[in-house]
């Protein structure tokens, strides 16, 4: 009889728990149970549970051991069999020592003032149960876990044994106390253990569903970030903003999405788009507040949103600033038709997405600046190369002009052809192999006029490489270096070979080899890496070329020098680009 009555009382508490766990705010409390705000809320919630357990307990007459419903105050010959231990134990197991101790104290005090036989026993036992369950729960709280229903049921039996021991040992009449224990122990242990297990099962299932929803939402957010990256990466404009707002509306549970810059609405998608029009000025205080403060703001009503349309269906909004790292350049707005949908979870992912999108904007601008800097650096380095060849060519043509003006005129035309190619190279980071070869041929013809018959140049170029792109002056610098430094004063049998071959679909190898006297070992180790102190030259052109190669292709395309007394080979392995778009990617 007593067991059935207690099950009825426990069922009411468990039903109340099920109803409460359907509330998103309560689930949020349990997921943030280590925070002070959540601890206070859990104390209030479980204290109410415990007090209800006292009120809905079963009165037992000490004299006759008859049962009836409990009242707010009891006579001295009456005790209560109830589910108070269930509520106190759950509070400690779920909330930790502070929650368990506070709920035990509050429930014990309430039970004490209810009166009945030896009410001090229940004050003491409630506090002990609260403290013990709290410290057991602390172990799981620290590990971000909840007890299983079986673990909770076993612990509930242990807590009930503690209460029975208190009744037996602390009763003024121990014989009567132990008789009472024999009557109520089994029913209360069974009911409280099963109730605790069911209570924990409800909590675990509810939070598991919440975690699953968050996992799905996290996956959606990550996919959204990936999809939106190209748009934010290239900056804020109306075209990009429209794509961004449509993607967010499709993925996230919001009613409308808007993207703005500092002055106007760039895009608005969803409910309210009939009067929130693209191109409209930012007139609301909410938008201006976010832009000026650089902080996220949340509006919980239509008046806070600041829409001037009386029939606007939007009741809540989250406005997130978009920054380029230096200043706020716009906002991202999420709108809701029901203010209840604007929970702390939505605020957290909205703020997180805003930070990610701002990072994408900043990254895009940084890469654009790096590209511009790289272009400027390339042009500077190329400009350092051109004067080196220019003065040598003018000196050669000036000497020839004295005895062969026609040849000098032809060479001037070749020089003109060379510098036209140089101007093209100075405007471009990459040129075709064919254009580079024409420039080299113009260069070598001028050099051959200066040193007739001194060297012979051969070409081994794959035809399928002629339209591929390489850095300007790549071939010319290495050929010039071989002509002026490889052969010293040797007047004949000087061979230079230019080779360009594909290694595979993505890579090629280029080399210039000679049969000269080689490079000294002390010079070779630093060549292309730094300025060389030498009577033969400074190595500045090779250093500049190597810097350009590293800037375009990376460390795998550093110039490689192999030299001996039989000659020198300078080679570079690089990625094949058919267009500048491929390089920029």
Please tell me about this protein's structure.
There is one protein chain. The chain is an alpha+beta fold. The chain has helices spanning 2-21, 24-31, 36-55, 84-95, 97-114, 119-142, 149-170, 174-233, 238-251, 285-293, 302-305, 344-401, 405-427, 433-450, 474-485, 521-524, 540-553, 580-584; strands at 58-61, 67-69, 78-81, 256-261, 265-270, 297-299, 316-323, 328-336, 431-432, 455-461, 469-470, 494-502, 507-514, 560-564, 567-575. It has a 5-stranded antiparallel beta sheet, with helices on both faces. The protein has a 5-stranded mixed beta sheet with strand order 10-12-13-15-14, with helices on one face. Strands 2-1-3 form a 3-stranded antiparallel beta sheet, covered by helices on one side. A hairpin with a 4-residue loop joins strand 12 (494-502) and strand 13 (507-514). The longest helix has 60 residues, at 174-233.
Question: What's this, in brief?
Answer:
It contains 18 helices and 15 strands.
Helix amount, in percent? 55-70%
The residue ranges in which pLDDT falls below 50 over 5 or more consecutive positions are 63-72
> For the report, how would you describe the main beta sheet?
5 strands, antiparallel
Write down how many β-strands occur, each being a DSSP E stretch of 2 or more residues. Answer: 15
Radius of gyration (CA) equals: 42 Å
Strand order, sheet with most strands: 5-4-8-7-6
Which structural category fits the helices and strands? alpha+beta
Cα shape: elongated
Number of contiguous helices: 18
User: Terminal Cα separation, in Å?
Assistant: 79 Å
Return the average pLDDT rounded to an integer: 79
What portion of residues belong to β-strands? 5-15%
